[in-house]
Amino acid sequence: MPATAHASWNKLQQLYESNKDSLTLEQLFAKDPQRFEKLSTEFKGKYTDANVFLDYSKNLVNEDILNALFSLVKEANVEKLRDEMYSGEHINTSEGRAVLHTALRNVSGELNQQEEGVADVPKVLQHMKEFSNAIRDESWKGYTGKPIKNVVNIGIGGSDLGPVMVTEALKHYVKRDIAFHFVSNIDGTHIAEVLKACDPENTLFIVASKTFTTQETITNATTSRDWFLESAKDKKHVAKHFVALSTNTKAVTEFGIDEKNMFQFWDWVGGRYSLWSAIGLSIAIAIGYENFHQLLGGAHDIDLHFKNTPIEQNLPVLMAVLGIWYNDFYGAQTHAILPYDQYMHKFADYFQQGDMESNGKYITKGGQHVDYQTGPIIWGQAGTNGQHAFYQLIHQGTKLIPCDFIFPVETHNPIGDHHRILLSNALAQPEALAFGKDEEQVKKELGAQASNETLVKSKVFPGNKPTNTIVCQKITPATLGALIALYEHKIFVQGAIWDINSFDQMGVELGKVLAKSILPKLHGEGDTKDLSSSTAGLVNYFLSHAK
Ligand SMILES: O=P(O)(O)OC[C@H]1O[C@@H](O)[C@@H](O)[C@@H](O)[C@@H]1O
């Protein structure tokens, strides 16, 4: 059912209209000294040390609004849909598939999940364990008997972003005597620069592609194999230097990779939800299998939290409904993710795909065109860098940008006062965004200059900008797993309320197909009559300038 068909949607619209001019964070806090205690909640892992504390008190919501948002969750049957996802029903309706990334990390076995392949998950994990151990303990040797010192993951989208983000976020745990490289872009520069840093005798290529048909990945993998064979000569050596992570056995073996060097996963693992699968092999090699298992465990702990916690204290639900409040009622177009942890500098990039490919849809599951906003634009970067780049606009621009601030209590690198200085910023920004600075205060500070009205006005901060603050003890593998799963389920809840299929990605197809038809034209083959005059003109410009 479209989101607007729910009674609580209308209620929320009314609440928005009647509160939008009067609801201020300043008043909300002034009225209720217990606001922080009431509007914050902590998750602690059952099986791991994962922990996430969420303070959502700096949001433009009162009790009525929160209750209406919770009613929306109930009316949209989010809990039923969640249970259907967990139990393996084919909720990815357009592709007729189950959505079972939770089965990849069901480390306790508490979730009862039925689908072809689920029973094989432990077997693949065991394979990953043995293989990653063999690379790490150097028992796996290259064709000249040398241990592996370079690992190149070749993949794109979901077969790249997860491994890149996690190996960065958990760099503290990464084995430093192996260099990890990630090649995704079809631009030859990407692979060329990586190969310059590698030696064919000690390089392992991990070809990561769910479909094993993705143009970028297959082209980069072919270039790498050619480069490798220039030195190794004999094709039989490929087996020691190329492995594949895929659902497509036929294409993998046709490429020349031995089936026993293939790590399987299944069509019920969406690309952007696949770092928990064989796609995580580079992560397992980098941080060690035990840590990879902790990553899975932390995510599993959030899966259990999402399943078993009443919606009022359910972290992914809370984050989802607050997002909907701004996205659909306040008209916010974007949402910023701002981790105050340098290791997490790729977290927002990762969820650009995670969120935008999942919820960037305008057709409901029933085939109707939505008459409301769906997925927000996700962006952000690590603090404090963002402060010196784009925070100006968040503070004083004309757009409302809800933000998530994320920080760990403990750092992996306690040097001098760095961490407390970092955290003072992570705390100061949401405070400034929420409460701003009024004209009176500015005038007081300006003293004699207060007569300059323009100057006064330009120094006023309106405040009332909503934020969440997410605090973890430390970015351990389990806590990172929990954070990722938290955002995954937030996306799920929002998609469920918007009544869209968060698990297909039809929108990436058209450009891919067109590129295939344009490629021969760039070789001067065929005519350009089927293209617009603009694109035809550009093709001809290229042809007349190409050397
Ligand atoms: O893993 P493969 O199949 O190469 O796909 C890589 C990526 O392709 C894109 O077009 C999207 O569909 C992504 O969801 C996917 O992660």
Which structural traits does this protein have?
547 residues, alpha/beta, Rossmann fold, Phosphoglucose isomerase, C-terminal domain, 3 domains, 6-stranded mixed β-sheet, 5-stranded parallel β-sheet, 22 helices, 46% helix, binds 6-O-phosphono-beta-D-mannopyranose
Blueprint of the fold:
Layout: H1 7-19, H2 25-31, H3 35-38, E1 40-44, E2 51-55, H4 63-75, H5 78-87, H6 121-136, E3 150-154, H7 161-169, E4 179-183, H8 188-196, E5 203-208, H9 215-232, H10 238-241, E6 242-246, H11 249-255, E7 262-264, H12 281-287, H13 289-308, H14 315-329, E8 334-339, H15 347-359, E9 377-379, H16 391-396, E10 403-408, H17 418-435, H18 439-446, H19 453-458, E11 467-472, H20 477-498, H21 509-522, H22 533-545
Parallel strand pairs: 3-4, 3-5, 5-6, 6-7, 8-9, 8-10, 10-11
Antiparallel strand pairs: 1-2, 2-11
The structure holds 6-O-phosphono-beta-D-mannopyranose.
6-O-phosphono-beta-D-mannopyranose is lined by residues 156-159, 209-211, 214, 217, 271-272, 357, 505, 508.
Describe the structure.
With about 550 residues, the protein is of the alpha/beta class. It contains 22 helices and eleven strands. It has a six-stranded mixed sheet with strand order 1-2-11-10-8-9, with helices on both faces. Helix 12 (about 280-285) crosses helix 13, helix 13 (about 290-310) packs parallel to helix 20 and helix 14 (about 315-330) packs across helix 20. The model has no long low-confidence stretch (mean pLDDT about 95). The structure holds 6-O-phosphono-beta-D-mannopyranose (M6D). 6-O-phosphono-beta-D-mannopyranose binds next to loops. One of its GO terms (molecular function) is monosaccharide binding. It is an enzyme of class 5 (isomerase). It catalyses: alpha-D-glucose 6-phosphate = beta-D-fructose 6-phosphate.
